[in-house]
Amino acid sequence: MILSGALAEGERLTEERLTEELGISRPPLREAMRTLQQEGLIEVRPRRGAVVTTLTEQDVMEILTLRSALERLAVELGVPVTDPARLERCRAALARMEREAEAADRGALVSAAYDFHSALVALAGHGRLDAAYASVQRQQRLCMARNLYTRENEYEDLVTHVKRHRRLLEVVETGDPQAVLAELAVHGERSFLAPPDARP
């Protein structure tokens, strides 16, 4: 609900409402909320309780630069890929991206792109790196949920989005880590902040 944008920044989260909407009891809900708090997706404020985190420009910059640094580390550790079978997860995610682009399902395409990047990071064979990256990805989804301007008005064409990821996989398959790092640098990050003249 938070990552889809169904809950707005600063919105108060009550146990009564969430247990009813999600159909779960309070103990697993409280555990989930503790995890969300640890990952920075919700905040607990005095006299207000839990609320959806409000991100600043500094927050977004930190999330995106950390994500980039983790991907670069994964490439340094995981490329060249000695066992071609380890690329199957990347290929499967890319194939899913292609299907979702054909169906013009932007939301499903973005989800598949997250899977692609997770598969890329997994090439490092580093469990703690995978866990750190998964946490950062969830925070990046919050960046996307907060900014409908970028998602709906500036997001690149779906086919172009798939082509960028296909190109990245092709470079990974060459086995040259420096070439992959160079491609990641131009692969780029979409801005999750609206231009100054578009912000309320």
**Counted beta strands:** 3
Q: Main sheet: which strands, in order across?
A: 1-3-2
Largest β sheet strand count, sense and barrel closure:
3 strands, antiparallel
Report the helical percentage.
Answer: 55-70%
Could you tell me the CATH topology label of the largest domain: Four Helix Bundle (Hemerythrin (Met), subunit A)
Judging from the principal axes of the Cα atoms, what is the shape? elongated
* CATH H-level superfamily of the largest domain: GntR ligand-binding domain-like
How far apart the termini lie comes to: 23 Å
- Give the helices and strands as they follow along the chain: EHHEEHHHHHHH
CATH class of the largest domain: Mainly Alpha
Please work out how many helical segments DSSP would assign: 9
The whole-number mean of residue pLDDT values reads 84
Structural category: mainly alpha
* Rg computed from alpha carbons, rounded to a whole number of angstroms: 18 Å
Low-confidence stretches: 190-200
User: Judging by the overall fold, what is the CATH architecture of the largest domain?
Assistant: Up-down Bundle
Strand content: 5-15%
Please tell me the total number of domains. 2
Please describe the topology of this protein:
Layout (H helix, E strand, L loop, with lengths): L11 E2 L1 H8 L3 H13 L3 E4 L3 E4 L4 H22 L9 H15 L3 H17 L4 H20 L1 H7 L3 H17 L2 H11 L13
Antiparallel strand pairs: 1-3, 2-3
Helix pairs in contact: 3-5, 3-6, 3-9, 4-5, 4-8, 5-6, 8-9
